[in-house]
Amino acid sequence: MKVVHIExxxxxxxxxxxxxxxxxxxxxxxxxGVTGIDLATSVSPDMVLIDINLPGLDGYEVVTKLxxxxxxxxxxIVAVTAEGDRDRAVALGFDGLIAKPIQVATFESVLRGxxxxxxxxxxxxxxxxxLADHGRRVVDRxxxxxxxxxxxxxxxQEVDRLKMEVLRNVSHELATPITPLLGYVKMLERAELGPxxxxxxxxxxxxxxxLSRLSGVVQNLLxxxxxATGHVTLERTVARCDRLVAEAVERVTPAAQARGCEVIVxxxxxxxxxxxxxxVVRDALTQVLDNAVKxxxxxxxxxxxxxxxGTSDEDMPAWxxxxxxxxxxxxxxxxxxxxxxxxxxxxxxxxxxxGAGLGLAIAERGAALHGGRLIIGDADGGGARVSLxxxxxx
Length: 394
Fold this sequence. Notes:
Elements: E1 2-6, H1 10-22, E2 26-30, H2 33-43, E3 47-50, H3 59-67, E4 77-81, H4 86-91, E5 96-99, H5 107-115, H6 124-189, H7 198-229, E6 237-239, H8 241-258, E7 262-265, E8 274-276, H9 278-295, E9 301-309, E10 318-324, H10 359-369, E11 373-378, E12 384-391
Parallel strand pairs: 1-2, 1-3, 3-4, 4-5, 7-9
Antiparallel strand pairs: 6-8, 9-10, 10-12, 11-12
């Protein structure tokens, strides 16, 4: 006989195991109600033994759940407890109750009786009363849990808000000294402060590249925290799609050149101007392009195109920016998560790409502010295809 024993006290589990294994039975232990439910529904036991006083879900709640499982409706379920009420236990679904302390000499034979079909009974009136009381208790516990979860959620939201505020302030403090540092390094590179030799120039170029990357990370942190704390309002002006694409491509060109990648503008870009926040759209497109360069293969190609869509009377016209790469693509199960701030598809210390996991999150927020969206799919021939749908006010 295969027996699932749900009991939180170790000494009681050991005693039951010794008694039943000595008689040739198999015992599978669970230390709480939730684990016990999972075990009982997965291993198809011949009998389930449950203590009433369990952490989390108590024995009455566990048996209520088990009796609703298709494979356990006829399985003998016995309460083994020092604190339960026999009539209540039977009314709520137990086939019987064995009181603790366990009688070693008769324990296994009593269980054989339940396995053979023995069932304890309770009058219908008492069953109805116990069921009604159990229902009220369950509702009271649910209400208590809902209140506790609501309070915990409110506290988490406040903690998240405070974290973002701190991160925004720290990012701002980091950005302040980086700007003059980068400016002075550029001046030194251009020999505006005096002549430099080749070794010094190479060192300055590396410093400039590192400072530029650091500045980009800090600016992304600032953008992400502004979105999260609601400090972003759109400043709409008339903009041109071709200029936004050209500016975004120019921004990612150094990173693309460093990886030997080619960024290609495909097709004719729409000439229709649109009323958008040019900076937000340009930043969003830059993030998508940078992501494609970063995760595509070295010496690969990144394609960017834009079309005017939704020009019927029912739909607001929109720019549809499409960026595709030749990399491994984004798995379907991760597509909803990669637009979360700080999410890393590979968060291990050995990951091949850097960054803080903010690029697509910033792009998605930028599109959403315009009433648009970011859509992730598969590129023709492999790789990722990311489109930005930006409604425009012509």
